[in-house]
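Running co-folding for 1-deoxynojirimycin.
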Amino acid sequence: MSLLRTVNPESPADPVGLTEPSAEPRPFASRWWRDAVIYQVYVRSFADSNGDGIGDLPGIRARLPHLARLGVDAVWLTPFYASPQADGGYDVADYRAVDPLFGTLDDAVQLIDSAHGLGLRVIVDVVPNHTSDQHEWFRAALAGGPERDLYHFRQGRGTDGELPPNDWESVFGGPAWTRVADGSWYLHLFAPQQPDLNWENPAVHAEFDSILRFWLDRGVDGFRVDVAHGMVKAAGMPDIGAREQAKMIGSQVLPFFDQDGVHAIHRGWRRLLDSYEGERIGVAEAWAPSPERLALYVRPDELHQAFNFQFLTCPWDATAMRAVVDASLAATGSVGAPTTWVLSNHDVVRHLTRYGADDYAKGLRRARAAALLMLALPGSTYLYQGEELGLPEVRDLPDEARQDPSFFRTDGQDGLRDGCRVPIPWEGDRAPYGFGSGGTGEDTGTGTDTGTSTGTGTDAGTGSGTGSWLPQPASWAGLSVAAQTGAEGSTLELYRTALARRKELPGLGDGGMEWRPSPAAGVLDFVRPGFRCLLNTGTEPVELPTPGRLLVTSADLAAEGGTLTLPADTCTWWAIP
Ligand code: NOJ
Ligand code: CA
C-alpha cells in the first residue's frame, strides 16, 4: 500500500512575501475574468505597515508577493475610501479620497502599479446604493439644500408623522428610516450612517460615472459593485407586511432589492467599462432569489460576473452541492456568462467553521475539500483572505472589540461579521504574528509584538497602539504564512499546488464539465478535458478503481493495486487520458 500525497513546491527564500514587488509588467490573458481566481483582501485586516493595529495600503503592497506566489490572478480590495468607518468603510464620505487610516491616494496608485508588475489585476469596491451620512451631499441635504433629492426623504405616518413612512427594515436590524430635525425621515437599508441614494436623480448617475472614471484612470481593472441589486426601489415604496425582512433576502423579491430598474444602471456602467482598454470588469454583489434572476446581472451588456451566493450558502451535502452547481451553470450559461464560485467573504462565518462547527479538524478537512471542488469547477473563483491558511471563525471576541454595526443594532443577537475579519497571521509565535510589521520590510523575524498584545486570544490588543484591531487567537501561530510555507500537507501549500495545477491544465478554468455516475452515496464525480475530480462528502471511506494519475488531494490517500480508498471529507484531482 502506498500513501499518496501531492508534491510540495520548494521552500522559498522569502516565505512571507516581503520582497519589494518588481516593476516588470507581465502580459495579461484576454477574457481573463472568465476563469480568474480573485483574492479578496479585507484591507483593515491584511497587513499593517505602521503598527497602529489597522491594515493599510502600504501593508498590502509589501505583501503582494505572497499573493503572486499563491497563484491568484487578481486582488479585490474592500473599500479604503475616506469614511467614518461606521460599517467597515462601506459608508463612504469621499469616493475619490483614501482614508488616512489606510494611506494616501499615492499609496493606492503605487499598490495598483506594483500589483500589475506582479501580474495581478486589481478590483476595487464601489458603493453606489448609499453614501456616508458625512458625505458632503448628505450634510447639505440635512441643511435643507436641494441635495435632499439625492436621497430618499419622506414624511412619516401617524398623527404627527411620528411613525416611519413604511414598514421596511434595515438589513442590520431596526427600521430602515431615521427621523431628522425637521420631522422628515430618510431611508437607509443599512446603518443610519448609510443613507440610500436616489437613483431617480440624474445627478447620482453622473457622479458615479465620474467616480468610476476616476479609478479607471488610475489603472484599476474593475469594480466589485456593492449592493448591486439595491439602487432602485419599487414605485411608491409599498409596505412588505412582514417582519424579519433580512431573512427574506435572497429567497424572494423585496420592494427594495432586485428591482428590474437596476439593470439599466448596469448597462450604462458596462458601456463605460467597455470604453476603456484592457477588459475592465464589473462584479455584482447581488442577492437575487434564484440563479435565473442572478443571471440577469451578467447578460452580455451588463456586468461581467455576479457572486454566486447559492454556492456559498449550500450545506455540506453532495446532492445539494450538485444541484447548486447545475443550476448555477445553467443560469449563467443561458446568458453566455461564466459562473463564479465563492465560499467565504467578510460578511459571513468562515466556511471552515460553517462546515465543522466547533470541530476544527472536521471543518478543516471539509474546507480543504471544498476548495478543491470549487477550483475544479468551470468559471471564476473568489478566495477570501485567510482561507488559504485554514483560518476558522473567531467566535469569542469580546464585545468591546466588536465593530460590526449589526451587533449593536440587534442587541448582540447578530453581529457575526467581526469573527471572519480578524487580522491575518504572517509569522512568529505571538500576536500580532507580523500583521503589524508587514509594510516595513524590516522585520521578518518571529514573535514581533508592536504593542501590548499578549497573544492569548481574546485578551490581545484591540485598538490603536496595540497589535491588531481585533485580537488574534493564541492558537494561530501554527497557521501563519511562515509556519505553513514549505510544510508538507499544509493548507497554504495545498492552495498553492491547486492553483498551479489549475494554470497548467488546459481543461480547467473556463469550459465544460460532465458528471459521471456517482460511485457511492455522498460522492461527486465529474470530468473535464484530461481531468477528473472526485469528492467524498460522506462519513465513510469509499473504494473505487484508481482513476488516473494523482494531481492534488485534500487529504492523504491509500492506494493498493488498482484500488483507491477515498476517505470521508476528501476531494481529489486526477489527470486522465
Ligand atoms: C455588502 C458589504 O459586503 C457589507 O460588508 C456591507 O455592510 C453592505 N454591503 C452595505 O454596504
Ligand atoms: Ca496601519
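Result summary
The chain has 13 helices and 22 strands.
The pocket of 1-deoxynojirimycin (ligand 1) is lined by residues 87-88, 90, 127, 190, 226-227, 285, 346-347 (CB under 6 Å).
Job closed.
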